[in-house]
Specification:
Elements lengths: L2 H17 L7 E3 L5 E3 L1 H9 L3 H11 L6 E7 L3 E6 L1 H12 L14 E5 L14 H16 L3 E5 L8 H12 L1 H9 L3 H14 L1 H15 L3 H25 L15 H13 L4 E2 L3 E4 L14 E5 L6 H14 L5 E4 L6 H14 L7 E4 L5 E2 L16 H19 L5 H21 L7 E2 L2 H4 L7 H18 L14 H10 L2 H11 L2 H21 L7 H24 L9
Parallel strand pairs: 5-6, 5-10, 10-11, 12-13
Antiparallel strand pairs: 1-2, 2-4, 3-4, 7-8, 8-9
GO molecular function: arginine-tRNA ligase activity; ATP binding
Family: Belongs to the class-I aminoacyl-tRNA synthetase family.
Subunit structure: Monomer.
Length: 572
């Protein structure tokens, strides 16, 4: 049901006949017609013919009569395509009857591991965790809907030297008092108190160091106290994920500790492969093509002189486990752009070791920073990282005020539901509607606006359509045949049939701003349709067809926003 693909396939056959070989017709939406192909221009040099002549011959060979009402060659050799209204009606009727809105599940489903969120035990989640969590959640939703087997990997920081001081501080407080402090979510105070002792008290520092040795050695008491820290922290993380409305659960926690037993075998295998080198202070791997500013090769530290392991060893163990044991063929790491080089080095070593070989591939899904109005990293007035819970609470509070002003007749219970959907949705959409590799400025007024490219605008568009059906008196609507006649219907139809093409593109690029942009364009186009084409005041088949267009638009807005992790209230 992908119109762009249908047109491409028809033109590809004609281009291939003219060029005596396969040709991508490069079909795109156009301001000069519904679609345009400019492939003749790039073929001109290869064939030694004027591009307009090539385009004219392709036009004469292409079988487009059932799809297009007009096909013309323009300019130096563009092929302009105007889609026929009956063809749009047929495509939309099939989409409306399909629970998947014309988007087929993947014909070649993969096992995909998505590594994202990754907070640290005994530390509260802050605004720096927002982008990884939101982008990762959208990737999970999209790829699962397309039929892939998706494994969510929340790579917790739950191991290493800080746990010596944390466990000693826990013992100083007493287990019950420490458990209470952690259970109320005051993780930052706990961590800061432990850190202050470590920095100021040499005796405490020595105890902490001995405790790390005991932890790494598997001491039973130390492990039990460590598990208490991890368990209470995970409970807190789950409350944040619930508030943020993401799909992460306790089954998705894969801390650094999960890979501990794999580190020695990974090191041995690297050594047997001849990749491990002694640099004096550590055993390292030096992947080819990576050098520092001084021109010296950059290392991945695998094992330190004291027997401990570097972060690189854990990342390598994770890749080896995910490809060998889980059978993953697509590994996605949703981590900030500053970590790009580290992960590229890890991937290079994994390829050298044979753990990351076709069809398996790893991708760094990098992203920029969230900035304040001053253009600097978003922080509190005191200069600290903003706690994520506080940010989400403020979003819901602001959205509740907006809901009361917009619809004062809504009951308070309904306002609470709308406020959560709109407030959390606004934060997510502000992130996902931005090209993820770019920084963006956090602006409450803009992200909660009912105008422009925002979540509230799209949520309101969806609620507005649902109100049409409430006013119509139809309890259960079943779409019948859709017919296109008015130019505003034609414009809306072109956007609706483009849904599958957009989703398929984002499946590969994970550029969610393209899906967000599509949904905004769809909502704006629907507004034009609703202004020019009466729905409930129309009669007979025209009314039924326009109701079907309304319903299909609402369903696509609902599904598209769901894929971004954003709720769609029926009333606002």
């Amino acid at each position: 049901m992908d119109l762009e693909k249908l047109l491409s396939d028809r033109l590809a056959q004609a281009f291939s006949a003219v060029a005596d070989g396969p040709v991508d017709p490069v079909v795109r939406r156009s301001q000069h017609a519904d679609y345009q192909s400019d492939a003749a221009l790039s073929l001109a040099r290869r064939l030694g013919r004027p591009p307009r002549d090539i385009a004219t011959e392709v036009f004469s060979r292409a079988e487009l009569a059932d799809l297009c009402s007009a096909v013309e060659v323009s300019g130096p050799g563009f092929i302009n395509l105007t889609v026929a209204d009956p063809a749009l009606g047929r495509l939309l009727s099939r989409m409306a009857a399909d629970t998947r809105l014309g988007v087929a599940a993947s014909a070649a489903p993969q096992t995909v591991v998505i590594d994202y969120s990754a907070p640290n035990v005994a530390k509260e989640m802050h605004v720096g965790h927002l982008r990884s969590t939101v982008i990762g959640d959208a990737a999970v939703r999209l790829l699962e809907w397309l039929g892939h087997r998706v494994i969510k990997a929340n790579h917790l920081g739950d191991w290493g030297t800080p746990f010596g001081m944390l466990i000693e501080h826990l013992l100083d407080l007493g287990e019950s008092e420490a458990a209470h402090e952690l259970s109320v979510g005051d993780l930052d105070s706990f961590y800061k108190a432990a850190r202050a002792k470590f920095d100021a008290d040499d005796a405490f520092k020595e105890r902490a160091r001995r405790r790390v040795v005991a932890l790494q050695g598997g001491d039973e008491l130390t492990l039990r106290l460590w598990r208490l820290l991890v368990t209470e922290s995970e409970k807190y993380f789950l409350t944040v994920y619930d508030q943020l409305d993401v799909l992460l659960t306790e089954k998705d926690f894969y801390g650094e500790s999960y890979y501990n037993d794999m580190l020695a075998p990974v090191t041995e295998e690297l050594d047997q492969l001849g990749l491990l080198r002694d640099s004096g202070d550590a055993a390292c791997v030096f992947p080819e093509g990576f050098a520092g500013r001084d021109g010296q090769p950059l290392p991945i530290i695998v094992r330190k002189r004291d027997g401990g392991y570097g972060y690189g060893a854990t990342d390598l163990a994770a890749i080896r486990h995910r490809t060998r044991d889980i059978g993953a063929t697509r590994l996605l790491y949703v981590v900030g752009l500053p970590q790009r080089q580290h992960f590229e080095m890890v991937y290079a070593v994994a390829r050298q070791a044979g753990w990351l070989s076709p069809p398996a591939m790893a991708e760094h899904i990098g992203f920029g920073s969230i900035l304040g109005s001053d253009g600097k990293m978003l922080r509190s007035r005191a200069g600290d990282s903003i706690k994520l819970v506080g940010l989400l609470d403020e979003a819901v509070t602001r959205a509740a005020d907006l809901a009361r002003r917009k619809n004062p007749d809504l009951p308070e219970a309904a306002i609470a539901d709308v406020a959560r959907a709109v407030g959390i949705g606004a934060i997510k959409y502000a992130d996902l509607s931005t090209d993820r590799i770019k920084d963006y400025v956090f602006d409450w007024q803009r992200m909660l606006s009912l105008d422009g490219n925002t979540a509230p605008y799209l949520q309101y568009a969806h609620a507005r359509i649902r109100s049409i059906f409430r006013r119509s008196g139809i309890d259960q609507f079943t779409a019948g045949p859709i017919s296109i006649g008015h130019p505003a219907e034609h414009a809306l139809a072109l956007e609706l049939v483009n849904f599958g093409s957009v989703v398929t593109s984002v499946e590969h690029t994970l550029e969610f701003h393209r899906l967000a942009g599509y949904l905004h364009t769809l909502a704006a186009t629907f507004s034009g349709f609703y202004e020019h084409c009466p729905v409930l005041r129309a009669a007979g088949e025209v009314r039924d067809s326009r109701l079907a267009l309304c319903d299909l638009t609402a369903r696509i807005l609902h599904r598209g926003l769901y894929l971004l992790g954003i709720a769609t209230p029926d009333r606002m």
